[in-house]
Design goal:
The complex is a heterodimer of chains A (393) and B (340). Helix content of chain A is 45%, strand content 17%. Chain A is of the alpha/beta class. Chain A has a 7-stranded mixed beta sheet with strand order 7-6-8-9-10-13-14, sandwiched between helices. A 5-stranded parallel beta sheet of chain A has the order 2-1-3-4-5, with helices on both faces. A two-stranded antiparallel ribbon of chain A has the order 11-12. Chain B has a two-stranded antiparallel sheet. In chain B, helix 8 crosses helix 9 and helix 8 runs antiparallel to helix 11. The chains are: A alpha/beta (393), B mainly alpha (340).
Chain lengths: 393, 340
């Protein structure tokens, strides 16, 4: 069935390309995501969303150009990511590169896209991908950052009167990113970090770190990891009798976290993007209808019960590209002129204002290539095995 | 403070027992076949993921590996059809029957919704033969290769099996039900029932291996091949069969350890390698030939791991693997004394 519909979509695409090839220029969106390897749990939904966007565009003839999607797998490997991005830029002549799923892969391709002068929209969490903005001229990103999410969580701690926090993080670059964000935010907000413990995905036991955290007697614990580790660390904290609030990074805000942690993770507080809690938002929130539409499309197409945060990131990246490309064509720049249109696309992406996406409201500027603010960060709480919107008191 | 020490002790012991099953497998394989099996940890992963599949009512991906392996065996045996077609036919039909039996067993188990222990037995029956198959493909064809060649081959096996695991199961972690949910409070320390299950199973496995090698003919044949391969061959012991059996038993022990570990940390495709290496560090204490010393070794590894994770969590793996250096120095001085 799936093959059939893909085939139908491809056929439709070919027909539409054939019909419009004569009068419409072609926009080539290249993307490299982690379809295999450790990050495939993130990369596959991202690929799915791009596929969905492609199918939607096949039905849509209102755009002043045709769109060609070229997607490669990087196997979560920085070297492969660089090779595939080179291929996209030189062989496939992509106008925009959407890459990559993880922070290490996104960091690896910075040099390549900057030298080739190709606009790049990253799907990685790490802030270092886009900062400092003057050096990352060609790089944008759609996912929220550690800094933004940690700020939201620490604000909540401060509101609750918590003065001491313990940090638990993965000992890879992901955990390091959380640690750096936590240090700077805690300092700014006057919260003391009383413990910092590390663990890895392949560990068999997380209790010692939990014991150390309990001993430091924190008001709250912040865990910067992804499932299964984040859920297992949470369980370990419960096991050693820690009863205070436990905060998690956005990396845990997916269904695996609940299916592994079960009743132990009830009450866990997670920094999250709007997509997980949109159903609980008031109707007045401009994000709600946009997310609802995307969720309905995605859930129907890929037959998943509930959409998580990753597909929205590539969906936004694709839509921001389309919006910028429309502006470029409107400004009279030919997409066939690769260098000029790449540069123009970059400028138009930077000029995107108040764009309501699935991941938040984007306002790019020369100094801000993330484009998101506090309106796009939410805290969710695990309640009866579901992520619900948490109203801070 | 006392409860902290108790927690660390209990967890160190639990991890130690898991690594003990690995060390046992490594020693068994090394003594009988002289293979330092870096890939031993992958059976941990296969056992855990097979159990996860069975418990969630899916056909386990291990069946593909098993049936694929059996087919490959028949193909490798093609040369025999010319010389002795009766034997070859017997061999091929035996393997076909084994494949069909494995399929039937899995279907039956899934239809009956066996309890966790029953599913563990089924998973064990599916995973253990993979050890013998891997022996057939990697060690059997080159019986006189040097140890270093076998080490390199086993690294290759580890990478391939992990890759196949990723292909079959994907990168997602699978939650696995414990044998018995919940646990007890012992003083201030909460101990999950699974820890007791690990203790009991590990003791049963070790005791079983001891009884098997001391009191059965096959077990004694294994011991003989371990002591002197050539001599055993002269005495009419089929050393290749002994090697395959050692691989099979080792795979079984490791798979059991994976199935016991999975409820504590979920099953995923990359869980095995680290566990295998830590079992190796423990086994190195006994020079990969001495069972009791290896057990002491893994207990030290388990204890050190849990205390170092408490004292300096960022350096816990560094500390555990640094343990190899004093162990090797100690073994070196010991063997020199023996040589004198």
């Amino acid at each position: 069935m799936r093959t059939l519909s893909v085939a139908a979509a491809l056929a439709a695409l070919t027909i539409s390309v054939a019909a419009h090839a004569a009068d419409k220029p072609e926009l080539r969106i290249g993307s490299v995501v982690a379809m295999t390897g450790p990050a495939s749990a993130l990369g596959l939904p991202e690929k799915n969303a791009l596929e969905l966007l492609q199918e939607q565009l096949a039905k849509d003839t209102s755009l002043p150009f045709t769109v060609k999607f070229i997607t490669y797998d990087d196997g979560s490997d920085p070297t492969k990511a660089v090779n595939n991005v080179r291929k996209l830029i030189t062989e496939d002549r992509a106008h925009v590169v959407i890459c990559c799923t993880t922070t290490p892969t996104s960091m690896a391709i910075l040099e390549t896209v900057t030298q080739a002068k190709v606009p790049n929209i990253s799907l990685a969490l790490g802030q270092s991908v886009i900062e400092p903005a003057n050096e990352r001229h060609w790089i944008f990103k759609t996912p929220s950052t550690d800094q933004l999410q940690v700020t939201g969580l620490v604000d909540d701690m401060v509101k609750r009167g918590i003065k001491k926090v313990a940090f638990l993080g993965l000992e890879d670059s992901f955990g390091e990113g959380g640690w750096i964000a936590m240090q700077s935010v805690a300092k700014a907000k006057g919260v003391e970090i009383v413990a910092s413990e590390r663990f890895s995905r392949t560990d068999t036991n997380f209790t010692p770190q939990a014991l150390k955290v309990r001993q430091s007697n924190p008001g709250a614990v912040y865990i910067h990891a992804i499932p299964p580790s984040s859920a297992l660390v949470h369980q370990a904290l419960k096991r050693v009798g820690y009863t205070g609030p436990i905060y998690h990074s956005g990396g845990s805000a997916n269904n695996a976290f609940i299916s592994i942690g079960k009743q132990d993770v009830e009450g866990a507080l997670l920094g999250t993007t709007p997509v997980l809690v949109y159903t609980d938002m008031p109707d007045s929130n401009p994000l709600k209808p946009v997310i609802a539409k995307f969720a309905a499309l995605y859930e129907k197409r890929f037959n998943v019960p509930k959409v998580d945060i990753f597909p929205g990131q590539s969906w936004d990246a694709g839509n921001i590209t389309l919006k910028a490309a429309e502006e470029v064509v409107k400004a009279g720049i030919k997409l066939d002129d690769l260098d000029a249109s790449r540069a123009a696309l970059r400028d138009k992406i930077e000029g995107v204002k108040e764009f309501v996406g699935v991941g938040g409201i984007f306002n790019y500027s020369p100094t801000d290539h993330l484009g998101l603010d506090h309106r796009s960060t939410f805290i969710s709480v695990v309640k009866n095995g579901e992520f619900r919107l948490y109203e801070s008191k | 403070m006392t409860d902290t020490v108790l927690f660390l002790l209990v967890d160190g012991l639990t991890s130690g027992l898991v690594y003990a099953l690995l060390a046992l497998s490594l020693v068994l394989v090394f003594t009988v076949t002289r293979v330092v099996n870096i890939a031993q940890g992958e059976y941990v992963m296969l056992g855990a993921l097979t159990l996860a599949d069975l418990l969630q009512g899916r056909m386990p991906g291990t069946l593909y590996l098993l049936i694929g392996g059996l087919v490959l065996c028949v193909i490798l045996d093609a040369g025999r059809w010319r010389r002795d077609w009766r034997q070859a036919l017997l061999y091929a039909s035996g393997l076909v029957i084994a494949g069909v039996a494995a399929l039937a067993l899995t279907r039956g188990a899934l239809a009956l919704h066996l309890p966790v222990i029953g599913m563990m037995v089924v998973a064990l029956i599916l995973v253990a033969p993979l050890g013998a198959l891997i022996y057939r493909f990697t060690v059997h064809p080159i019986p006189n290769a040097t140890t270093i060649v076998f080490v390199i081959i086993s690294v290759g096996v580890s990478m391939s099996v992990q890759g196949l695991g990723l292909l079959i199961w994907g990168a997602n972690p699978y939650p696995v039900d414990p044998i018995a949910a919940g646990g007890v409070m012992m003083g201030p320390v909460f101990i999950p029932y699974q820890s007791f299950a690990i203790l009991i199973t590990a003791l049963l496995a070790m005791g079983g291996l001891y009884l098997f090698s001391e009191f059965t003919l096959v077990g004694k044949a294994l011991q003989a091949s371990a002591m002197n391969r050539l001599g055993a061959q002269f005495c009419g012991i089929p050393v290749n069969a002994a090697g395959a059996l050692a691989f099979l038993l080792a795979a079984a022990f490791s798979a059991v350890s994976g199935m016991l570990l999975a409820p504590l940390i979920t099953a995923n495709y990359e869980m095995g390698f680290m566990v295998g290496l830590k079992g190796f560090v423990g086994g190195a204490m006994g020079g990969l030939i001495d069972y009791p010393l290896s057990l002491v070794g893994v207990m030290i590894v388990g204890g050190l791991e849990s205390t170092s994770a408490y004292v300096a969590s960022a350096y816990r793996d560094v500390l555990v693997f640094s343990l190899l250096i004093p162990i090797l120095l100690w073994r070196n001085t010991r063997s020199r004394v023996e040589a004198r």
